[in-house]
Design goal:
The complex is a heterodimer of chains A (137) and B (230).
Chain A (H helix, E strand, L loop, with lengths): L2 H9 L2 E2 L2 E8 L7 E6 L7 E5 L3 E10 L8 H11 L7 E5 L2 E9 L4 H22 L6
Antiparallel strand pairs in A: 1-2, 2-3, 3-4, 4-5, 5-7, 6-7
Chain B lengths: L2 H11 L11 H58 L3 H75 L7 H30 L1 H9 L9 H13 L1
Helix pairs in contact in B: 2-3
Keywords (chain B): Coiled coil
Pfam family, one (chain B): PspA_IM30
Protein name (chain B): Phage-shock protein
């Protein structure tokens, strides 16, 4: 499914009691990115990109400089440990930002994609709530 | 060096500037070329394999035809001997000798084909493995690249969007507030519905013993007793 097609479908769709807003960040000649907001939570947008093999859904959680310096190791360790139990999503770091992401096959159905987006959005909020103790006041 | 190892080293180095490709375009082209070469090799090996397998079958058929001829002529020689025609039997035996010589030649050729088949099958297996491996590595390179490009696109959006510059703590508070608001709204809606239906007032009145209250069994019993006594 192309990203613009996904965007159109999301606009008129509601699942698991949740609605979506999305818009395409067109990137001339480069990678297109679809920004998806789940359930009105525009603080934690999900960025969807497509490659030949997979559909990547990424949500940025916090910047490295928001982490209390003396707790960084503990936070990293905790995130590594949480990677397996957390459903469908995994933690990552992109440049200086911590992120949570999920990867899907490009052959995934629309239902698979929306389920991923809803789960990722929930996971992002839960994760942010769980790690606040490691962040600067 | 495997791509994963290269990526690991680059990430560990940390000196990478945003958007700088870990594996240059040339590296990607080399990978794609290697995949194309392996696919060509695979096609060639598969084509040779079918040809050699066909030849192997032909040779086997020839050998079994010769076996049949040998058996047939052995029977003829036996019949000639039974009839006391030693000269004819000898002639037939010579013919059998020719058949056996021909069979030996074919068997040698067959062994060559069989060896070739084993080799070609090995080549096919290796080419398939190499294609899969290169494709896996290429996927890693391309994903890394596309994530970098996407990150750049996202960053330029984030930087023009001031609301996204807030800290994670503030974001979380806002989300929690929104969730709470929604709950409150839901609660308020329920309250309003109860009020309009008058459920709430009725419940309060019933509690105070006002309005249509269900007659209590104790009262009923008292009424019956009063009737009996009168």
């Amino acid at each position: 499914m192309e990203l613009n097609e996904l965007s159109i479908k999301l606009a008129s769709f509601e699942t698991e009691g949740v609605s979506f807003e999305s818009f395409l960040i067109a990137n001339e000649g480069e990678q297109d990115v679809l920004q998806v907001i789940v359930d009105g939570n525009d603080e934690l947008p999900i960025f969807v990109t497509q490659t030949e093999e997979q559909l990547l859904c990424i949500s940025y959680l916090f910047a490295e400089n928001e982490v209390q310096a003396d707790m960084r190791n503990e936070l990293n360790e905790t995130l590594l440990r949480l990677n397996v139990p957390i459903p469908l999503s995994a933690f990552a770091k992109i440049d200086d930002k911590y992120a949570i992401f999920g990867a899907l096959s490009v052959n995934s159905s629309f239902d698979d994609i929306t389920h991923e987006l809803v789960t990722l959005a929930d996971n992002a909020i839960d994760a942010l709530e769980a790690v606040t103790i490691y962040l600067n006041d | 060096m495997s791509i994963l190892k290269k990526l690991f080293t680059a990430v560990r180095g940390g000196a990478r500037e945003a958007g700088q490709a870990i594996v240059d375009a040339n590296g990607i082209r080399i990978f794609e070329q290697e995949i194309a070469d392996a696919q060509n090799a695979l096609q060639r090996a598969k084509k040779s394999l079918t040809e050699v397998m066909a030849k192997e079958m032909q040779t086997k058929r020839k050998i079994s035809a010769l076996d049949a001829s040998i058996a047939e002529h052995e029977a003829y020689a036996g019949q000639a001997l039974e009839k006391g025609n030693e000269a004819l039997a000898l002639e037939i035996a010579e013919k059998i000798g020719d058949f056996e010589a021909e069979k030996a030649e074919h068997e040698e050729v067959l062994a060559g084909f069989s060896n070739h088949i084993v080799q070609l099958k090995q080549q096919v297996k290796e080419a398939e493995k190499s294609i899969k491996e290169n494709q896996r590595q290429l996927t890693m390179v391309k994903t890394t690249e596309s994530v970098q490009q996407a990150t750049m696109a996202v960053n330029s959006t984030l930087n023009t969007n001031s609301s996204s510059m807030t800290s994670a703590r503030e974001s979380l508070e806002r989300i929690k507030q929104r969730q709470q608001d929604r709950q409150d709204q839901l609660g308020a809606a329920k309250q309003l519905e109860a009020d309009t239906n008058g459920d709430d007032l009725k419940a309060k009145m019933a509690e105070a013993g006002i309005g249509d209250t269900n007659p209590k069994s104790a009262d009923i019993l008292a009424r019956i007793k009063a009737k009996q006594n009168s």
